[in-house]
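1st attempt posting a full record on here, be nice pls
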Amino acid sequence: MLEISDLKVHFPLASGQVVRAVDGVTLTLTPGEVMGLVGESGSGKSTVGKAALRLVPATDGGIRIGNLDVLSARGKQMRDLRSRAQMVFQDPHSSLNPRMTIRRAVSEGLILNTSLRGRALRDKVAEMLEAMGLPAQFHERFPHELSGGQKQRVCIARALVLDPELLVLDEPTSALDVSVQAQILRVLRDLHKVRPEMTQLFISHNLAVIRFLCQSVAVMYLGRIVEAGPVARVFEAPAHPYTRALLSAVPVPEATRRPDRIRLEGDIPSPTALPPGCAFHTRCPIAEKGLCDVTAPPEVKLDDGRSVRCHLA
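the predicted structure (as tokens):
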């Protein structure tokens, strides 16, 4: 359903430097698959999601959604892309037009991409909003009259109203309170039950959310995928030291705190000056001098369906 091949997204700066936000990402999502894309802030995961829908320009590589070549799409093909693939953004407060009622916001995609009008249009929008837990008394309200969780439900309804084949969710709960996060996560979990054929790419830095919602996971570090595979296998026996460090940092109750907490030294390097060899070697607790700091690790396929980029995996 979604095939990303050696994707690169570089942003030139006025200083002459280049920000290598995404530097050779390859991902494949099958129809109905829910994949999590995780990593620290600045790892490039949101840029991958936006580039997949051509919301930011790709520097190199290939992106296909079904049989559509995303990077070469023009005219009617671009309109087809907008119908087949939708995105839910991180901040619901800035994702909605403050001058539009929520009914108008959700109906806009249908007006632009379908022939639905009049009562049929109103019924479709009302059905979608009510499915998101927003009954009729909310439909003529403006965004400032809604809570953060209600706004995010509107954003999800707006994305789903076109019945997309692919849904990209860019940290849809990170700007919400914890109790509201739980509500939205239940909505997303139920969504997969109702529409099992829809493919989802769920971008997050919250590993507990990925475990809860996703079937597979890809771990990003400094613009590259360092480990990918089924959620159960990656979480139970992570092969890459960065994945192990992320999992060891997941908060747990004090009474059950793990003794194997891995504390990474230093900050993530600048994407304008990537380190040689393995990009993680500057923080890796097991890096070998003369190997990890010299040679970039190739992708290794493991017997259990995972892939990992690490000389020592």
